[in-house]
Amino acid sequence: MATQTLDTKGMNCPLPILKTKKAMKDLATGETLEVLSTDPGSVKDMEAFCKSTGNKLLSSNDNGGVFTYEIEKG
Amino acid sequence: MSDGSNNKKMSIIVTKGTLDWAYPPFILASTAASLDIDVTLFFTFYGLQLLKKDLSHLQISTLGNPAMEMPMMGMHMTMPNIISAIPGVDAMASSMMRNMIKKKGIASIPELRDICVESDVKIVGCNMTLDLFEWTPDMMIPEMELGGAATYMAEALESDINLYI
User: Fold this and answer.
1) In this predicted complex, what is the ipTM?
2) Domain total for chain B?
3) How far is the C-alpha of B45 from the C-alpha of B127, rounded, in Å?
4) Is B124 helix (H, G, I), strand (E, B) or coil?
5) In A, which residues are within 8 Å of B3 by CB distance?
Protein backbone atom coordinates (compact mmCIF):
# COMPACT_ATOMS: atom_id res chain seq x y z
CA MET A 1 0.00 0.00 0.00
CA ALA A 2 1.46 3.34 -1.06
CA THR A 3 1.76 6.13 1.50
CA GLN A 4 0.05 8.56 -0.88
CA THR A 5 -1.70 8.49 -4.25
CA LEU A 6 -1.44 11.13 -6.97
CA ASP A 7 -3.97 11.19 -9.78
CA THR A 8 -2.68 12.88 -12.96
CA LYS A 9 -5.19 11.29 -15.34
CA GLY A 10 -6.00 13.60 -18.27
CA MET A 11 -2.82 15.64 -17.81
CA ASN A 12 -0.32 15.90 -20.62
CA CYS A 13 3.49 16.09 -20.62
CA PRO A 14 5.22 17.43 -18.55
CA LEU A 15 2.51 17.84 -15.90
CA PRO A 16 2.58 14.23 -14.55
CA ILE A 17 6.31 14.59 -13.79
CA LEU A 18 5.97 18.10 -12.34
CA LYS A 19 3.11 17.00 -10.05
CA THR A 20 5.03 13.86 -9.04
CA LYS A 21 8.04 15.95 -8.07
CA LYS A 22 5.84 18.18 -5.93
CA ALA A 23 4.14 15.22 -4.22
CA MET A 24 7.47 13.52 -3.46
CA LYS A 25 8.53 16.54 -1.40
CA ASP A 26 5.89 15.70 1.22
CA LEU A 27 7.19 12.15 1.72
CA ALA A 28 9.87 10.89 4.08
CA THR A 29 12.65 8.58 2.86
CA GLY A 30 11.29 5.05 2.38
CA GLU A 31 7.68 6.18 1.96
CA THR A 32 5.99 5.48 -1.36
CA LEU A 33 3.88 7.38 -3.84
CA GLU A 34 1.43 5.82 -6.26
CA VAL A 35 0.95 7.85 -9.47
CA LEU A 36 -1.87 7.35 -11.98
CA SER A 37 -1.47 8.75 -15.49
CA THR A 38 -3.09 8.47 -18.91
CA ASP A 39 -0.04 9.92 -20.69
CA PRO A 40 1.75 7.13 -22.63
CA GLY A 41 4.93 9.26 -22.59
CA SER A 42 4.98 9.01 -18.80
CA VAL A 43 6.31 5.41 -18.99
CA LYS A 44 9.76 6.52 -20.13
CA ASP A 45 9.52 9.85 -18.32
CA MET A 46 8.91 8.28 -14.92
CA GLU A 47 11.98 6.02 -15.38
CA ALA A 48 14.09 9.05 -16.28
CA PHE A 49 12.68 11.05 -13.36
CA CYS A 50 13.53 8.31 -10.84
CA LYS A 51 16.99 7.74 -12.32
CA SER A 52 17.86 11.42 -12.12
CA THR A 53 16.40 12.15 -8.69
CA GLY A 54 17.59 9.08 -6.77
CA ASN A 55 14.08 7.77 -6.12
CA LYS A 56 13.23 4.12 -6.76
CA LEU A 57 10.62 3.03 -9.30
CA LEU A 58 9.16 -0.04 -7.59
CA SER A 59 6.58 -0.85 -10.27
CA SER A 60 5.25 0.43 -13.59
CA ASN A 61 2.01 -1.03 -14.95
CA ASP A 62 -0.33 -0.39 -17.87
CA ASN A 63 -3.92 -1.13 -16.88
CA GLY A 64 -5.64 -0.58 -20.20
CA GLY A 65 -4.68 3.02 -20.85
CA VAL A 66 -4.14 4.04 -17.24
CA PHE A 67 -0.52 3.79 -16.19
CA THR A 68 0.25 3.13 -12.54
CA TYR A 69 3.62 3.78 -10.93
CA GLU A 70 4.88 3.12 -7.45
CA ILE A 71 7.84 5.22 -6.40
CA GLU A 72 9.84 4.95 -3.20
CA LYS A 73 11.46 8.10 -1.94
CA GLY A 74 15.26 7.72 -1.92
CA MET B 1 19.34 12.50 -1.97
CA SER B 2 16.10 13.14 -3.78
CA ASP B 3 15.58 16.75 -2.76
CA GLY B 4 19.15 17.78 -3.39
CA SER B 5 20.95 18.68 -6.53
CA ASN B 6 22.59 16.07 -8.71
CA ASN B 7 25.25 18.64 -9.62
CA LYS B 8 23.96 18.96 -13.16
CA LYS B 9 23.21 22.32 -14.71
CA MET B 10 21.33 23.53 -17.77
CA SER B 11 21.06 26.93 -19.40
CA ILE B 12 18.70 28.08 -22.13
CA ILE B 13 18.80 31.30 -24.15
CA VAL B 14 15.14 32.20 -24.76
CA THR B 15 14.74 34.43 -27.82
CA LYS B 16 11.13 33.99 -28.91
CA GLY B 17 8.00 35.49 -27.39
CA THR B 18 5.05 33.83 -29.10
CA LEU B 19 2.60 31.49 -27.36
CA ASP B 20 3.84 28.40 -29.21
CA TRP B 21 7.56 29.16 -28.81
CA ALA B 22 7.08 29.88 -25.11
CA TYR B 23 6.49 26.16 -24.53
CA PRO B 24 9.90 24.54 -25.19
CA PRO B 25 11.92 26.65 -22.73
CA PHE B 26 9.33 26.51 -19.93
CA ILE B 27 8.66 22.77 -20.39
CA LEU B 28 12.36 21.92 -20.42
CA ALA B 29 13.17 24.23 -17.51
CA SER B 30 10.34 23.01 -15.26
CA THR B 31 11.09 19.36 -16.08
CA ALA B 32 14.83 19.79 -15.54
CA ALA B 33 14.13 21.43 -12.18
CA SER B 34 11.95 18.42 -11.30
CA LEU B 35 14.93 16.21 -12.12
CA ASP B 36 17.05 18.19 -9.61
CA ILE B 37 18.97 19.99 -12.35
CA ASP B 38 19.94 23.63 -11.67
CA VAL B 39 18.47 25.75 -14.46
CA THR B 40 19.22 29.25 -15.72
CA LEU B 41 16.97 30.85 -18.33
CA PHE B 42 18.33 33.90 -20.13
CA PHE B 43 15.55 35.91 -21.79
CA THR B 44 16.65 38.16 -24.61
CA PHE B 45 14.98 40.08 -27.45
CA TYR B 46 11.42 38.83 -28.05
CA GLY B 47 11.92 36.17 -25.39
CA LEU B 48 11.86 38.91 -22.75
CA GLN B 49 8.17 39.27 -23.53
CA LEU B 50 7.68 36.04 -21.53
CA LEU B 51 8.70 37.75 -18.30
CA LYS B 52 5.93 40.34 -18.34
CA LYS B 53 3.65 40.01 -15.31
CA ASP B 54 0.61 39.44 -17.49
CA LEU B 55 0.95 36.84 -20.26
CA SER B 56 -2.59 36.99 -21.61
CA HIS B 57 -1.38 38.95 -24.65
CA LEU B 58 0.79 36.12 -26.00
CA GLN B 59 -0.18 35.11 -29.52
CA ILE B 60 0.81 32.68 -32.24
CA SER B 61 1.27 33.81 -35.82
CA THR B 62 0.09 31.66 -38.69
CA LEU B 63 1.91 33.89 -41.18
CA GLY B 64 4.70 32.05 -42.97
CA ASN B 65 4.11 28.87 -41.00
CA PRO B 66 2.98 26.17 -43.44
CA ALA B 67 3.67 23.46 -40.84
CA MET B 68 0.95 24.73 -38.53
CA GLU B 69 -2.10 22.55 -39.02
CA MET B 70 -5.14 23.27 -36.91
CA PRO B 71 -7.74 20.54 -36.44
CA MET B 72 -10.93 22.13 -37.73
CA MET B 73 -14.26 20.61 -38.71
CA GLY B 74 -12.78 17.10 -38.80
CA MET B 75 -9.91 18.18 -41.06
CA HIS B 76 -6.45 19.67 -40.64
CA MET B 77 -6.24 23.15 -42.09
CA THR B 78 -3.24 25.34 -42.80
CA MET B 79 -3.70 29.07 -43.16
CA PRO B 80 -2.82 30.67 -46.52
CA ASN B 81 -0.52 33.67 -45.98
CA ILE B 82 -3.00 36.05 -47.54
CA ILE B 83 -5.55 35.11 -44.87
CA SER B 84 -2.96 35.23 -42.07
CA ALA B 85 -2.23 38.84 -42.97
CA ILE B 86 -5.79 39.96 -42.21
CA PRO B 87 -6.05 41.82 -38.89
CA GLY B 88 -7.65 39.67 -36.21
CA VAL B 89 -6.63 36.32 -37.70
CA ASP B 90 -3.68 35.89 -35.31
CA ALA B 91 -5.95 36.67 -32.36
CA MET B 92 -8.51 34.13 -33.57
CA ALA B 93 -5.88 31.43 -34.18
CA SER B 94 -4.34 32.16 -30.76
CA SER B 95 -7.68 31.76 -29.05
CA MET B 96 -8.22 28.43 -30.87
CA MET B 97 -4.77 27.30 -29.77
CA ARG B 98 -5.49 28.20 -26.12
CA ASN B 99 -8.73 26.18 -26.25
CA MET B 100 -6.93 23.16 -27.74
CA ILE B 101 -4.19 23.38 -25.09
CA LYS B 102 -6.80 23.40 -22.33
CA LYS B 103 -8.81 20.56 -23.85
CA LYS B 104 -5.76 18.31 -24.15
CA GLY B 105 -4.70 18.73 -20.50
CA ILE B 106 -1.59 20.69 -21.45
CA ALA B 107 -0.28 23.20 -18.92
CA SER B 108 -0.69 26.90 -19.66
CA ILE B 109 2.38 29.13 -20.00
CA PRO B 110 1.62 31.05 -16.75
CA GLU B 111 1.28 27.69 -14.96
CA LEU B 112 4.65 26.42 -16.28
CA ARG B 113 6.33 29.74 -15.49
CA ASP B 114 4.96 29.63 -11.92
CA ILE B 115 6.36 26.12 -11.49
CA CYS B 116 9.76 27.34 -12.76
CA VAL B 117 9.72 30.19 -10.22
CA GLU B 118 8.66 27.85 -7.39
CA SER B 119 11.41 25.38 -8.34
CA ASP B 120 14.10 28.05 -8.08
CA VAL B 121 14.87 28.26 -11.79
CA LYS B 122 17.17 31.26 -12.16
CA ILE B 123 15.47 33.81 -14.41
CA VAL B 124 17.74 36.38 -16.03
CA GLY B 125 16.37 39.18 -18.18
CA CYS B 126 18.59 40.85 -20.75
CA ASN B 127 19.28 44.40 -19.63
CA MET B 128 20.03 45.63 -23.14
CA THR B 129 16.67 44.29 -24.45
CA LEU B 130 14.78 46.00 -21.63
CA ASP B 131 16.44 49.28 -22.61
CA LEU B 132 15.92 48.69 -26.34
CA PHE B 133 12.16 48.14 -26.08
CA GLU B 134 11.80 50.81 -23.39
CA TRP B 135 10.32 48.40 -20.88
CA THR B 136 10.87 48.83 -17.13
CA PRO B 137 11.61 46.20 -14.44
CA ASP B 138 8.26 46.91 -12.73
CA MET B 139 6.47 45.52 -15.83
CA MET B 140 8.25 42.20 -15.31
CA ILE B 141 7.91 39.45 -12.69
CA PRO B 142 9.85 40.28 -9.50
CA GLU B 143 11.89 37.05 -9.76
CA MET B 144 13.70 38.44 -12.81
CA GLU B 145 17.33 39.37 -12.27
CA LEU B 146 18.92 41.62 -14.87
CA GLY B 147 22.12 40.61 -16.59
CA GLY B 148 24.04 40.65 -19.83
CA ALA B 149 25.96 38.36 -22.15
CA ALA B 150 28.76 37.88 -19.63
CA THR B 151 26.25 36.72 -17.00
CA TYR B 152 24.99 34.13 -19.45
CA MET B 153 28.50 32.98 -20.39
CA ALA B 154 29.42 32.44 -16.75
CA GLU B 155 26.38 30.13 -16.34
CA ALA B 156 26.89 28.41 -19.70
CA LEU B 157 30.51 27.54 -18.98
CA GLU B 158 29.42 25.63 -15.88
CA SER B 159 26.44 23.91 -17.53
CA ASP B 160 26.10 20.37 -18.83
CA ILE B 161 23.34 21.39 -21.27
CA ASN B 162 23.20 24.71 -23.13
CA LEU B 163 20.30 25.39 -25.47
CA TYR B 164 19.25 28.28 -27.71
CA ILE B 165 15.54 28.50 -28.40
Assistant:
1) 0.89
2) 1
3) 10
4) strand
5) 25
